[in-house]
Amino acid sequence: MASAAALLLQLQLLLLLSLSAAQPGFISLDCGGADDYTDGIGIQWTSDAKLVFGGQATNLPVQNQLQKQYSTLRYFPADNSKYCYTMNVRTRTRYLVRASFLYGNFDNSNTGQPFISTLELRQFNGSLYYTDYEAQFFLALSARINFGADGNKSVRYPDDPFDRIWESDSLRRANYLVDVAPGTERITTTKPVFVGTELEPPEKVMQTAVIGQNGSLNYRLDLEGFPGNAWAVSYFAEIEDLAPDETRKFKLVVPGMPLFSKPTVDVEENAQGKYRLYQPGYTNVTLPFVFSFEFKKTNDSSKGPILNAMEIYKHVQITMGSHSKHHV
Ligand SMILES: *[C@@H]1O[C@H](CO)[C@@H](O)[C@H](O)[C@H]1NC(C)=O
Ligand SMILES: *[C@@H]1O[C@H](CO)[C@@H](O)[C@H](O)[C@H]1NC(C)=O
Ligand SMILES: *[C@@H]1O[C@H](CO)[C@@H](O)[C@H](O)[C@H]1NC(C)=O
Ligand SMILES: *[C@@H]1O[C@H](CO)[C@@H](O)[C@H](O)[C@H]1NC(C)=O
Ligand SMILES: *[C@@H]1O[C@H](CO)[C@@H](O)[C@H](O)[C@H]1NC(C)=O
C-alpha cells in the first residue's frame, strides 16, 4: 500500500516536471525524425510521423555540424496529391509558423521531390501581432533585426518567450544592412530594460543598440517578397546614461517618401523614462524591395539617434490553398 502511494506520488511529480519543462503553445516537429527529444536550448522536438500521412523519412547524407532537427527530412512524391500535416491548435489564436527546408542532397540527384525539414508553431498570447486585416491577410516575416547585437548569434527562446528569432545586425549578407553611416557605434547595457509593452520583445534585444554619433543612422536592405504592403515597427529604448542637459531627438527619413516621416522621436519622453521601450510603427505602409531609411537627429538634439530593433512583415493574402486531385 505504502509503496503504491509512493509510486503514485512519483508519477504525479514526473507529470508535473514534464509539464513545467514543456513550452506551452509550442509545437516543434522534426520531420523525418524517428524520436522525441529536447534540444540544447530546451525546445522539445517530436517526430512528425503521427501527424502526416504519406511521404518518406530520410537522413541527410552529410550530418556533421547539423543540429539534430535538420539532419532528417520527409519527402513526398512529385504527384498531384496534397500531403497535409494535422495539428492541434487553439482556435481564434494567432501563431508564429516557421517551416525549414534543408535540401542537403538528400536524393543525390535533384529529383525535385517536395520535402520539409522542420515545422514549428508558437502560440502568441493576447493581441500580439493583431492586425485589422487578419481575416484576409497574414504577416510574412521579411526582417527582424537586433541592432547593436553582441556577436553574430540570433536571440531566440528562452530569451524570447515566443521564440521569435532576432537576427544580429553584424551578420554579413549581400544587400543586407549596407550603406551604414559613418559614426555608427554599438552600445550595450546590463541594466534591466522594461519591455512589458504590447509586442513583448526580449529584454536582451533591447539591451543593445546602435547610435549615430555623427547625427545619422542609415541602412539599406533588400526586403524579401517586396514591393508590397508592410507592417513595420521600430524599437527604441534609451540605454545610455545621458546627462540631465542632454537630449536625443530624431526623425525618420525615407528617401522618396516624405509622408513616411512621423513626428519627432524623443525616446525618453515617448517611453516615459530611461531603460523603457517605445515602439512606434506602421500597420500598413507600402515599401519597395530595396529599402533605405535614415534616422536623423534634429537640430535641437545634443545626441544622435538610437535604434535597438526593427521588424518588417508583408501583408500576404490568405488563399484557400492549391487545388489537388486527391487529398491524402
Ligand atoms: C501565454 O498564456 C498562457 C496562458 O495564460 C501562459 O500559460 C503562457 O505562459 C503564456 N506564454 C507566454 C510566452 O507569455
Ligand atoms: C560574423 O559573421 C561574419 C560572416 O557573416 C564574419 O565575417 C564575422 O567575423 C562574424 N563576426 C563575429 C563577431 O562572429
Ligand atoms: C562626422 O561629420 C563631420 C562633419 O560632417 C565630418 O567631418 C567627420 O569626419 C564625421 N565623422 C565620422 C566618424 O565620419
Ligand atoms: C493597405 O493599404 C493599401 C493601400 O492603401 C490597400 O490597398 C490595402 O488593402 C491595405 N491593406 C493591406 C492588408 O494591404
Ligand atoms: C536643421 O537646420 C537646417 C538649417 O537651418 C534646416 O535646413 C533643417 O531642415 C533642420 N533640420 C531639422 C531636422 O530640423
UniProtKB/TrEMBL annotation:
<dbReference type="Pfam" id="PF12819">
    <property type="entry name" value="Malectin_like"/>
</dbReference>
<dbReference type="GO" id="GO:0016020">
    <property type="term" value="C:membrane"/>
</dbReference>
<feature type="signal peptide">
    <location>
        <begin position="1"/>
        <end position="22"/>
    </location>
</feature>
<feature type="domain" description="Malectin-like">
    <location>
        <begin position="109"/>
        <end position="314"/>
    </location>
</feature>
<protein>
    <recommendedName>
        <fullName>Malectin-like domain-containing protein</fullName>
    </recommendedName>
</protein>
<keyword id="KW-0732">Signal</keyword>
<dbReference type="InterPro" id="IPR024788">
    <property type="entry name" value="Malectin-like_Carb-bd_dom"/>
</dbReference>
